[in-house]
Amino acid sequence: MKPFLLLATRAEGGAAEEEYESYLNFGGLAPHQLHRVRMEAAPLPAIDLAQYSGIIVGGSPFNSSDPEAGKSALQLRVEKELSALLDTVVAEDFPFLGACYGVGTLGRHQGAVVNRTYGEAIGAVPVTLTAEGRRDSLLDGLPDTFDAFVGHKEAVFTLPPHAVNLAGSPTCPVQMFRVRQNLYATQFHPELDVAGLLTRISVYRNAGYFPPEEAEAVMDSVRPARVTAPPLILRNFTARYAR
């Protein structure tokens, strides 16, 4: 089997390693089946799509809708490199799954309006499939409504006409969408369980998602959550596109 490619942008070691392990675990992959490139550490090397089964983009501390003048040189480089890669990925309809940051990468590349209107606080929210979502094989086995972990400052405000909305939540109308037949992005995190989310809360307590002094309260609020359905998306993705 050709490996999948994970494009990561988290500089924080604890969160970065847990993210990689979660994609291995929930994707049903062995380490040699998931090649990780840490884009925050070095420029993106040339990517030969023929060497991979598909591409996964993990979450990110970056917000694509921030004013350009306020973005760091690192963020601007990552955005430029991902956009150039997406030119080819979209043209070839190459299997792609962007989790959370996929909205700011695939979404903006395809002309979606991404802003802070539908940001959601950290926690579990009910996500409901659209009619198109119920017909999409990447969502096979998921109930019509399921809980998923979120925590994001920006989200899709308007999808371009050629994109298909697959799922939404009461406070964020676009939780998952598809472009063409094989390009997907989720706003929620299919790779997170409670333990993983607790790590993120700790690591990003000063990142503006909540007042730093409320970190322990936020952790307490998510500990009882029972979020089990979203990881099935990762298993469906790897099973569908492994080659």
UniProtKB/TrEMBL annotation:
<feature type="domain" description="Glutamine amidotransferase">
    <location>
        <begin position="46"/>
        <end position="192"/>
    </location>
</feature>
<keyword id="KW-0315">Glutamine amidotransferase</keyword>
<dbReference type="InterPro" id="IPR029062">
    <property type="entry name" value="Class_I_gatase-like"/>
</dbReference>
<dbReference type="InterPro" id="IPR017926">
    <property type="entry name" value="GATASE"/>
</dbReference>
<dbReference type="InterPro" id="IPR044992">
    <property type="entry name" value="ChyE-like"/>
</dbReference>
<dbReference type="Pfam" id="PF00117">
    <property type="entry name" value="GATase"/>
</dbReference>
<protein>
    <submittedName>
        <fullName>Glutamine amidotransferase</fullName>
    </submittedName>
</protein>
